[in-house]
Amino acid sequence: MRWQFALLLTLAGVLGFGLVSVVAALPGTVPGLDFVRRAADERRNGNTETVVLVNGRAITAAELAEMEQWVNANVSWMREAEKETTDTTQVALLRRTRELIERSGPRTVALARLIRDRALESAAIEHGVWPDEATIAERVARDRELAEQMKDPRLDTFVTTLGPAVYWERFYPGVVARELAQERLFEVVTGDELDLAARQKRWLTFERELVRAASIEVTDSEALGSASLEEAFAYLEEYWSLHSTQ
């Protein structure tokens, strides 16, 4: 199920980003747990200062620092998945994606991911597909029950570090809202296309146009650290090109 990968996928849906959607099973080991703990620590202790605005929607210093740790965790996971996946096409895509992330740098990828997510959030609201509170609560309850059954070490690590009440009551509802919104937006954009590859390509084109048209303002350039808007956009262009050809 997609939600099982939400944490490793830097807390958003796999539609259009696909870092692990090409692999059906988890690797035999659980790499990157130290990065998962660091991500939870950044979320718990982080700075709420706004560093970037995307269509008026804030990216905070804490969110950027947390996302950087999820990117590191994802790279660790992909490196192990490459060893255990037998499908050569999937292995090649994982390797090329991982190499692109490593070449770009985790901070830059984190910024790129957050810019993309904020642009999609804005689009979901504009299209009237943002979920209501009852729908969000229903999905949170379902996922919490599934989490207790699955016992995923990554999820358990994040929940334990952040605190169960904080995670399920304050943090995860936001994750669910964004995921549901993106699922619905995906259907709005691609629902009349039957071919899966064509749907993916159309979605990535939609993402590219959306991000290119977004109003983006850096409010604290020092807080970006090693990242920059130019490098984030360059990463996204390479990512879209890579996954549009699959």
Low-confidence runs (pLDDT<50, min 5 residues)?
1-28
Oligomer: single chain
* Overall shape: globular
Count of alpha/pi helices: 9
Label the structural class: mainly alpha
Biggest sheet, open or closed, and with what strands and sense? 3 strands, antiparallel
What characteristics describe this protein?
mainly alpha; three-stranded antiparallel β-sheet; globular; disordered N terminus
How would you characterize the overall build of this protein?
The chain is mainly alpha-helical and 246 residues long. It is built from nine helices and three strands, in the order H-E-E-H-H-H-H-H-H-H-E-H. The protein has helices at 33-45, 61-84, 88-104, 106-126, 133-150, 153-162, 164-190, 196-213, 229-244; strands at 50-54, 57-60, 216-218. The chain has a three-stranded antiparallel beta sheet. A hairpin with a 2-residue loop joins strand 1 (50-54) and strand 2 (57-60). Helix 1 runs parallel beside helix 6 (153-162). The longest helix is centred in the last third of the chain and has 27 residues, at 164-190. The protein is globular. The model is unreliable at 1-28 (pLDDT under 50).
Topology:
Elements: H1 33-45, E1 50-54, E2 57-60, H2 61-84, H3 88-104, H4 106-126, H5 133-150, H6 153-162, H7 164-190, H8 196-213, E3 216-218, H9 229-244
Antiparallel strand pairs: 1-2, 1-3
Helix pairs in contact: 1-2, 1-6, 2-3, 2-4, 3-9, 4-7, 4-9, 5-7, 6-7, 8-9
